[in-house]
Design brief:
- By secondary structure, the chain is mainly alpha-helical.
- The protein has one domain.
- The longest helix is centred in the N-terminal third of the chain and has 31 residues.
């Protein structure tokens, strides 16, 4: 692994940490961050994850209907998870936090891991392509840091626990880059995994975060969501 890859790996770590620290520092503006997170999760599902999953499935001749089935099944599964844990968890929510916090943040960590794999694979193919992908991931990881901490705080988890998940999310791309020298994920598995993320992120964005923004009439909430969508659109258009 050359020095350039190591530098970009460290940059992804710093970018994610910075995104999360913004939330921790400015918790009083959480409604705006809820809106931003909702917009970015929904946008990244449609502009990044789903197109990538469909492209991979098309390249290997894997039926697209199975990709869409994975999306719907994931959405349904996470709705059941939240419904089950919500009915058993309400009384303890203030002290232990809602399970959907770690579930959502954990999935973002896996997503960040795959971002690292994308960087490592791109550099393996071509240095110039690797640089472009790395810059896109670095800027994208800033929003990942925001989303990770937002999901934890939204679901009543303590700042210390949110910081732990933030650290793991920041470390994930670095690990992903290292894994490109060891493991090659089968294309079918990658396509299905991305589709599962789509279903989950759509559920979290639309059913968990978006209703929270409806409670606030401030135009800033709408602006925050619009900015998130535009930012993800721009970042995904770079690659």
């Amino acid at each position: 692994m050359n020095d350039l890859v190591i530098i970009f790996a460290l940059a992804t770590f710093v970018s994610t940490i910075c995104g999360g620290l913004v939330i921790i520092k400015f918790k009083k503006y959480l409604p705006y961050f809820f809106a931003f997170a909702a917009g970015s999760l929904i946008a990244v599902s449609f502009f990044d994850l789903l197109p990538e999953s469909l492209q991979i499935s098309q390249n290997i001749g894997f039926p697209i209907k199975y990709i869409m089935l994975a999306v719907v099944a994931s959405f349904f599964f996470y709705s059941l998870v939240e419904r089950f844990f919500l009915t058993h968890h309400i009384e303890k929510e203030d002290t232990h936090g809602h399970i959907m916090g770690p579930v959502g943040a954990g999935s973002l960590i896996i997503h960040s891991l795959l971002d690292g794999v994308a960087i490592g694979s791109a550099f393996y193919a071509n240095v110039s392509v690797g640089i472009i992908v790395a810059f896109a991931v670095i800027f994208h990881d800033f929003t990942d840091g925001i989303n990770t901490v937002t999901l934890m705080l939204k679901n009543k988890h303590k700042t210390r626990k949110a910081a732990l998940f933030l650290f793991l999310d920041a470390l994930a791309p670095v690990v992903g880059i290292l894994l490109t020298n060891i493991i090659v994920l089968p294309q079918v598995a990658l396509a299905l995994l991305l589709a599962i993320f789509v279903g989950e992120f759509l559920y979290i964005g639309a059913s968990t975060l978006l209703p929270e923004t409806m409670e606030h009439n401030s135009k800033g909430v709408i602006i925050a969501m619009a900015l998130a969508i535009i930012m993800i659109l721009v970042l995904t258009s770079i690659i």
